[in-house]
Amino acid sequence: MKKLRLALLGRDVSLSDSEKIHRFILGKMGTECDYEKVSVPETEFCRAAERLLNETDGFNVTIPYKRSIFPYLKSIKGDAAAYGSVNTVVSAEKAGYNTDGKGFLLMLEGAGITVRGKSVLVLGAGGAGRSTAAALKAAGARVLLYRRNRRLLKEACEELGVEAAEGVVPCDIFINCTAVGMHESTGQSPVAGEALNQCLTAVDLIYRPAESEFLRLARERGKKTLSGGAMLFYQAYFSDCLYLGRKESAEEAKALYAEYLQRTQ
Questions:
Q1: Could you write out the DSSP letters of every residue in the chain?
Q2: Would you call 66 a catalytic residue per the annotation?
Q3: Rg (CA), the chain
Q4: How do residues 42-75 score in pLDDT, each as one tens digit?
Q5: Deepest in the core among 39, 188, 206, 244, taking most CB within 10 A?
């Protein structure tokens, strides 16, 4: 049985479910893995990225380094180039990919949420926000992107071809792509509850806690809510297909996720 050397690189990945998910998916594909969680501050990112490129078969990149990894790679492929964000690295090629967008759209599909022709407000323009906004645009949504830094917001909107929002505006779907609500900010929401009155559906990419404060506030107001657990699984599935050079299948991904939920709940 082939054994992969994999890792997850981010500022704080100590509580991530990624290792458990990758071990499950790869086991179903007839593969084992050694898996390392690498939490580093920005001052140690360079050393960590170079080490992982030399010592692993591949690794995932998460907050806040999905753009910081670019200079260490020889090529940026597929959705990663379009999104300006890398979440998956194949080390032998020093190639960066992005599986967040596909994982996000498959999560919405599984929850019965359609985006074509809908107005979607995306909060946050980091790696996750960029991937989400670009995937939504490709799927036919009207995308409004918001972040407080107006200069960075303008740059992101011009790069992705989406609209800049002046603030929280009425929309069909409101998506939190910031890290507010996890780790040290657990129990906090990036917006006040009143802001959620203006949407029909609220989505948070955070999966721990299962119901973030953002989603709790939305649920209290009668909105449909969705957390990011399925997206985490699906982006891991698509990453594993890249590591193995294996053809991906949305149907296989959904079947594996259903089995994973049965085993873990």
A1: --EEEEEEEES--TT-SHHHHHHHHHHHTT-EEEEEEEE--GGGHHHHHHHHHHH-SEEEE-TT-TTTTGGG-SEE-THHHHHT---EEEGGGTEEE--HHHHHHHHHHHTT---TT-EEEEE--SHHHHHHHHHHHHTT-EEEEE-S-HHHHHHHHHHHT-EEPSSS---SEEEE-SSTTSGGGTT--SS-GGGGGG-SEEEES--SSSS-HHHHHHHHTT-EEEESHHHHHHHHHHHHHHHHT----HHHHHHHHHHHHHHH-
A2: yes
A3: 18
A4: 999 999 999 999 999 999 999 899 999 999 999 9
A5: 206
Copy the structure tokens of residue 165.
């929002």
- Tell me if residue 126 falls in helix, strand or coil: coil
Mind listing the pLDDT tens digit for each residue in 192-213? Answer: 999 999 899 999 999 988 899 9
Of 3, 37, 66, 77, the active-site residue reads 66
- In 3D space, the residue among 97, 146, 102 whose CA is nearest the CA of residue 121 turns out to be 146
In a 3-state reduction of DSSP, which class is residue 101? helix
